[in-house]
Write a structure and sequence with these properties.
- Chains A, B: Its cofactor is Ca(2+).
- The structure is a homodimer.
- Chain A is an alpha+beta fold.
- Chain A contains 14 helices and 36 strands.
- In chain A, the strands form six sheets. In chain A, strands 6, 7, 8, 9, 12, 13, 15, 16, 20 and 21 form a ten-stranded antiparallel beta sheet that branches.
- In chain A, helix 6 packs parallel to helix 7 and helix 8 packs parallel to helix 9.
- In chain A, about 55% of the residues are buried.
- The mean pLDDT of chain A is about 95.
- The interface between A and B is medium-sized, with 32 and 32 residues.
């Protein structure tokens, strides 16, 4: 160590600016920050005296200025506490408590004259969040990140629920294995996708859910990903140390920052109860409050849509069978329609009728606009213009018709990854929406990104996704972005971001199927960062019923699909199946009609990642509760309790349950519906089939 | 050769579809197309029986479909002729004749089922143009270009006037040497630039001007560069074959095409008279006519501006001395102005006064907007917003003031190469212009391109430059784009593209100086594709007079600067020096006040690339002529003739000439002005100093 550094370290010791310790408000979590050999910042975390994160390094490697890796001294350390509550615009509960103890360390680097950074640590009862900060200062302005070097030194070979680390897709099936098995299972896990870029034989995505051998649940993710590259994790499977691995741009750089700036928060949620993980609001709490002055136009959306029939292959997005079209050149009115184009005026009106009859807010229509004949796999720049309908889709008539039925149209903006094209058309596209009765949009980024060389999760696209959201707010438009970077709690700051897909959703049931435990994992992984537009509600689980050539099937029972409306939180929910199928099961469909999408309260009754989840939620501003319970391929009996109901009050519960012989693969459509009078003391045992579920609506007895 | 191909070739011979020959209308140029070994398309060109292009291959190598290189047969060949005249909106002459013989060959590739391309050759009296065409067809739609393989097999080790091939800059000094010397001179030629990417030790830019040992002038360039990558040339200096070398994108691909599509025209202009090269309209003739319905808003622009004082270092673009600013965050009103910010209301009003008093159309102001403190070299994404002025620049007041004096404001959009940022702001920026009295914009792309990895001359940016021009037309805005791809005659199709810089301009006189022969070369190179905003008119050639720390000087006499208004054609011309300097030379300045920027007729009196140029032009719709004559470092006597004047009519000529002891380096400001009565029979001998010139205005005698 050089002489100057030695003196500083001595001084720091004398002044007490050496190791810093922090506890969570309930004291279960203990955190320590210190500088190790050569002034390397490190931290560690324990829960109820058990190690969660062993001594782990922090730092950032830069390309063009001296790196932020070592040679630090603690020049200041401030501890504060914070305890406030806030109300989300839409959410799982009406009020969220934000209660943490914070440590803000200022680190000088004597070898780099007059330069310093800060690291801010917030310790909540449910976990830790920390971020790097680069304050405005004379000797630091612009710098380029080569790699972030944040470590998470795990305490053991945990069981993990993981996705292969990738710069372009999250649509892999989750693999459940010990960390030591990741390397051997990686190859099989990387199934084909429209756009994919793995980076390491032991690379992992976040949110990463783990369970230690001694029953501790640990979830690693990030919060408030703004103007930075998305973080993946690279596992060292000899010592189980995870290290941050950012997404590169076209030339290999991993971030361009200008002080004052900060990284996103790196989050570690911990508990010995799996239900606490699902109940955690840590990620939302780390995000900034919203600056939107008016949020009255942001509302939950339950919708149906012209979509599943294309996913199953029954219909097409495309209007005709041309192999190649040029917008503004191809005269669609002169081409021969293929006879399978679902997005036609008459058919959409049927969906509007269905929505109106059943209390749905909106109708999504995919395939309404010119360009679907060659939209995919051609790296096509000018692929859509977002405003020109096919000849058989009458925008104005559908606007009139939907409005007459008090139904909104939901827009679809598939960008095909052609992002400059989308931005060029965005204002016109949003204006077109407002002029024609659309107040929400499902956007998509299928395929490799254009500009070529950029990745879905790099800083360039992270910037774009937020640009699309904030511009949408100017038009009072709500956004549901598919194939975008997975969320990190930004829906607190930008509440018109209703949901994302950004994971393997229901469509994959038609592309070969999802594992029966898929939906018992997703709330512990993908949904930790924000709501998911999972688009459940498939009642006809055999796809061949719609398209004989497609032998896929949905790996859950019909009732499991009902339960998902409760277990997969989203303020934007689709009843994804075809109206003619729902027509055959209107008694079961009643649950979907009734269930809310916005909540006053949420109680995680029981949960085990990969096995089962049972959740109860109170509808916002209503005296109604909805319970959803799901299981994996193992049948089970769920005991549903109602202690959260007001005492002494009676309710009618309608219980939707798997039939006695139901199973996801052999008998998915078998179900029973029974009514019961209940109160807060009632316990109801429900049998869940293999891949099954249970759904309960609770309303006051009239 | 395979059997199928042999049969086809035999058939083709029988049917006469083998070699194809074409002559220019005046028969001086002879062209031949044929298929060589293995069905490789080749062409050759001769002029007055002397070889210009020896047998040269044509073709395109692709990445994802079978290449277009060999195995061709001629399935059709059609010869036609065309002879029409058209009027440019603004130009060097009122009417342009478009007269050529055309050969259109259709080439099938039997090894690739049912696929064909076309090559279209047009042979004019002044040269050849040809392009590849990819018609709409079943078996060809999308393809990716790996490299274009167009050869130009030169007939000898010509003298060449060349720039190092580069994907990002044209601002090198032209090197004059034999082709065999290119390799040895390359290193010294590649001087530092804000953004530069060479690709070969013998790479060359176009337009490429050459002179053979037997006195033939040959110019190679391209016309109508639209939705394609810019072409450079790679010289094989063992056999003097040039081959096309396209500009790659961030991942190394060289173009994304979708049939129907075409390449730009590859152009070869030929004559034994250098004056014919300058008089050639071949490149404009190959461009499409304009589709703009209304062109009444497109007019020539003579302007002055707040610019040269910053280029010389006398003043700054920036308002204060902060090292780092963030738009919308930095409160400029609270920062300390540096006292050298030229773009302030009072100072700009002085320029408006000067413009009004001297008949100038517009005043350019650079440095008017927030962001100049850290605009350069930081790879800054959100670098300018194009609408927020500095605290000392009153947009509305200057609008009012300029309008009251019948002067337009000229906008400045420096993009700093941050192209997504420019596109995001473009509509607001153009609207801001129209709302505030600006109808023309100088745009700039200084520094490396963002999205990172793209190049100034790749297809991505070629698309962007045209996007900026066509969107400007929606607002009736004229565009002068600096650092953009060098022009290729698109100002015929998009006449609001008034000019580009896209070469080493006058500013480099302040950055170390230009060679004294620089302006005797540029019309043979850079200006072949379109007008150049050279910004001449520097009367104070010693920069130290403005900034004692800058010892650069302009390598021409004052009178040479006057002549440039005639020899450097542009409908947009700046009087670039400071008003207070012009005030000391108002008699010489009179020429700049008088000279037109739009012409009925142009006569190239004499010219030799690198040595001298003398041009006479008739002002549009006026009975006035302007003559400009320039020389390199060699003094010379120019004999100016007036045979183009109407016979029997008398005119007054005002002759601006170098003083007897003038020279560009020792005595640049020495000049004489004399008046003469002349008619069409007059001959005037003028002595041009070293780096000197002569300028003559001719008006009817009153």
């Amino acid at each position: 160590m050089n002489k100057l550094l030695t003196i500083f370290m001595l001084l720091s010791t004398v002044l007490g600016l050496q190791a810093q310790e922090l506890s969570s408000p309930d004291k279960n979590l203990k955190f320590k920050f210190s500088l190790q050999d050569n002034g390397v910042p490190t931290y560690e975390l324990s829960y109820k005296n058990k190690p969660i994160i062993k001594s782990s390094k922090l730092g950032i490697e830069t390309k063009d200025v001296p790196s932020f890796l070592n040679g630090f001294v603690i020049s200041n350390a401030v501890q504060t506490s914070f305890d406030e509550s806030w109300n989300p615009v839409l959410g799982e509960q009406k009020t969220i408590r934000n209660h943490y103890n914070e440590l803000l360390v200022t680190l000088a680097q004597p070898s780099v004259k007059d330069r310093y950074i800060r690291i801010r640590f917030r310790l909540f009862d449910d976990g830790l969040g920390f971020r790097y900060e680069f304050p405005e200062q004379k000797n630091l302005s612009y710098f380029i990140i080569k790699e972030e070097k944040t470590q998470f030194a795990l305490a053991g070979d945990h069981k993990a629920f993981w996705l292969p680390g990738d710069f372009d897709t999250q649509e892999y099936s989750t693999v459940t294995s010990n960390l030591s098995e990741v390397r051997g299972k990686m190859k099989a896990a990387v199934t084909p996708n429209a756009s994919q870029t793995t980076f390491s034989p032991t690379g992992l995505q976040t949110p990463l859910m783990m369970k230690s051998k001694d029953g501790l649940y640990i979830n690693i993710h990030e919060a408030a990903l703004v103007d930075y590259s998305c973080m993946s994790l690279n596992l060292n499977d000899s010592n189980f140390v995870l290290e941050s691995f950012l997404t590169p741009d076209a030339i290999g750089d991993k971030g361009y920052l200008q002080a004052p700036a900060q990284s996103p928060w790196r989050t570690i949620i911990v508990s010995d109860k799996a239900t606490d993980i699902l109940a955690s609001k840590l990620i939302l709490n780390l995000n900034e409050p919203t600056k939107y002055a008016d949020v009255s136009w942001i509302k939950p959306v339950k919708y149906v849509g012209v979509w599943w029939e294309m996913i199953t292959g029954k219909s097409t997005w495309a209007y005709n069978d041309l192999e190649s079209v040029q917008l503004g050149v191809t005269d669609y009115s002169k081409t021969k329609p293929n006879g399978k184009h679902a997005a036609n005026t008459q058919h959409v009106k049927e969906y509007i009728d269905f929505a109106a009859a059943n209390g749905f807010d909106a109708v999504l229509v995919e395939g309404w606009n010119e360009g679907w004949e060659d939209w995919f796999g051609k790296t096509k720049d000018y692929v859509f213009d977002f405003i020109t309908p096919y000849p058989d889709f009458d925008v104005q008539e559908l606007h009139r018709y939907a409005a007459s039925k008090n139904v909104k149209m939901m827009m679809h903006h598939e960008t095909s990854g052609s992002v400059r094209n989308y931005e060029r058309h965005m204002d016109d596209a949003y204006k077109f929406m407002i002029d024609n009765g659309y107040n929400s949009v499902k956007s998509g980024y299928v395929g490799n990104i254009i500009p070529r060389g950029e990745h879905h999760y790099g800083q360039w696209l992270v910037n774009h996704y937020l640009y699309a959201i904030t511009k949408a707010a100017d038009y009072k438009i709500m956004v549901n972005a598919h194939e975008a970077v997975r969320p990190t709690g930004l829906n607190r700051t930008y509440p018109n971001l209703l949901a994302n897909e950004s994971a393997r959703g229901t469509e994959y049931e038609s592309f070969g199927g999802n594992n029966p435990d898929h939906t018992t994992i997703l709330p512990f992984t993908r949904l930790m960062g924000g709501p998911m537009d999972y688009t459940p509600g498939i009642f006809q689980t055999k796809i061949s019923a719609y398209n004989p050539e497609n032998t896929s099937f949905v790996h859950s029972t019909l009732v499991h699909q009902l339960a998902l409306y409760v277990t997969m939180y989203s303020p934007l929910q689709m009843a994804a199946d075809l109206p003619e199928t729902y027509a055959k099961f209107m008694d079961a469909f009643q649950f979907i009609k009734d269930v809310a999408a916005d909540w006053d309260e949420t109680v995680i009754l029981e949960a085990e990642p990969g096995d089962y989840i049972s959740i109860a939620r109170k509808a916002k501003n209503k005296d109604e509760w909805y319970i959803g319970s799901i299981t994996d391929e193992n049948p089970r009996t769920a005991t549903i309790t109602f202690e959260y109901l007001p005492k002494g009050k009676n309710y009618e519960a309608v219980i939707y349950a798997d039939g006695k012989t139901a199973s996801y693969d052999k008998n998915p459509q078998s179900y029973t519906i029974r009514k019961m009078k209940i109160n807060s003391k009632t316990k109801v045992k429900v049998n869940l089939a293999s891949g099954g579920g249970a759904a309960i609506s609770v309303k006051p007895i009239k």
